[in-house]
Amino acid sequence: MKRKILSKSFFDRPTLVVARELLGKYIARRNGIALMITEVEAYDGPLDLASHARRGITPRTKVMFGPAGVFYVYFTYGMHWMVNIVTGPKDYPAAILIRAGIKEDGTPVTGPARLTKYLNINKEQNGKCAGKTTGLWFEDRSVRVARSKIIASKRIGVEYAGRVWAGKPYNLKIAP
Predict the structure, then answer these.
(1) Rounded Cα gap, residues 137 and 103, in angstroms
(2) Which of 88, 139, 162, 167 has the highest CB neighbour count under 10 A?
(3) Are 147 and 23 in contact (CB under 8 A)?
């Protein structure tokens, strides 16, 4: 199987384009663990009221304003790590939350907290570039997901953003 590590240029594009194309790609660790990505959620720009960046640059969100291809990892509910990858141009805060995947044996890993736990992702990866040197990266293993197999729906748990932003079809997953 041919494996190609995704470069910064893959992520330095519009967030929704990257989100669609991440489906079927793999997130991999140096220790050999990998998951095929089956669900993502996009957060696109400073006007996106569901995005952490909606209030501007803070110590937590400054990573989102940086270059594409960098991990934005944050702690939520006092117990879970969430992993995102920054997209688009520098100073435009956008990122994609990795929500679910499938292990190489076919077992699903559903939910972003279970995904980070399985991959042993924590604050150590925050602000680091996706790549072999940091031990966490994305791979293209030639899996192609047809547009007809992608389900777009509203994002999960962002009702605070108001009807319009909460209802944006920025949750993307591979149909069963």
Answers:
(1) 15
(2) 88
(3) no
Q: How many residues does the chain have?
A: 176
Alpha-carbon distances of 142 from 77, 158, 167, rounded to whole Å: 36, 33, 32
User: What is the structure's pLDDT at 77?
Assistant: 87
The residue written with tokens 């470069």 in the block is 7
Scored b (16 or more CB within 10 A) or e, 127-152 reads ebbbeeeeebbbbbeeeebeeeeeee
- For position 5, what pLDDT does the model report? 97
The helix/strand/coil state of 101 is strand
Tally helices (H) and strands (E) across the chain: 4, 10
Query: Quick one: CA dihedral 53, 157, 110, 40, positive or negative?
Result: negative
Instruction: Note the Cα 116 to chain centre separation in Å.
Output: 11
CA 125 to CA 61: how far, in whole Å?
14
**Count of CA atoms in the C-beta half-sphere (13 A) of 169:** 6
DSSP one-letter code for 66: S
CB 34 within 8 A of CB 107: no
